[in-house]
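Note to self: keep these together.
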Amino acid sequence: MSERVFNFSAGPGCLPESVLKQAQRDLWDIDGSGVGILEHSHRGKVVDKVFDEAQADCRALAGIPENYKVMFLTGGASAQFYMLPMSFLKKDQTADYINTGVWSTKAIKDAKRYGGAHVAASSEDRNFCYIPKADAIRWSGSPRYAHFTSNNTIFGTQWRAEPRAPEGVPLICDASSDIFSKPIDVTKYALIYAGAQKNLGPAGATLVIAREDFIEQGSEDIPELLQYRTYAANDSRANTPPVFAVYMVGLVFKWILEQGGLDAMRAHNEAKAKPLYDYLDGSSFFNATADADSRSLMNVCFRAPSEELEKAFIAEATKAGFDGLKGHRSVGGMRASIYNAFPPEGVVRLVEFMEKFEKRHG
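Structure:
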């Protein structure tokens, strides 16, 4: 069997080794049923248990109140860009969006199909290298809801705390790339969504946590499978769901609980990112691209003095066992994605490699 490399991919991200090993066993036979998880009916007792435990563990992790629903949808976070305004935004209404990168830009574009989309703040003026300050946010008169993206994978920025929406305005968050990497007060939100493939599991499932009264405000004049109430009322199984993806997310929830929960994840992620940012701050060769007060603990973006040196760095790093360091095609450079399950040893080893590269080429 080949040796595993350090996977710095921005998504799908790496998974805990214990989760992967459990999945290997359960692919063949889960819970002594004689049938693997991929083969079980989505309405059978084995899958009932998978969904029940995933929802219960999700609630335990984030302290989710009973008046919130935990749902697993398909289509990735990108499907939420249109499902959200389709459900809650009418032609004569306006939703407020804070634009901090590519994904929020896409969300704004889809919102405009259904109603008004007011950009309350943006960091586009400096190529999305920072998170807007509270005093730079200009909310519209009566927004239907306020939306922000908590972490930006492409530009390596992350909100330290959620923006304060106007009183009574539902707050929505796309938390795809930092969900459960730190504590979260769910009661501040009307709806949170997150594609699983960064911090929670493989691609295929999207976690949605939504307040029940907000769900019921959604339009009923759209297809049933695009209504949140359909998933809330049917345990996310109105049709055949991505059972394996949800099963994997459930295992990751258990793994996070075993690590000590979300407080422990925050401490773990802060300690893991520190050696890399410390090195970048002291380097005269590499430089971090995000402002210091906006830096992401999930995606560390950095550049070298030239594109030629960046290509050489990525090629040499790949040969040395560091995979997925190439930056997004729209911005170039390098990006080290160090989600919850990424091992701290990988960051230490990467810094050692970068130091040697700098000595040779600096």
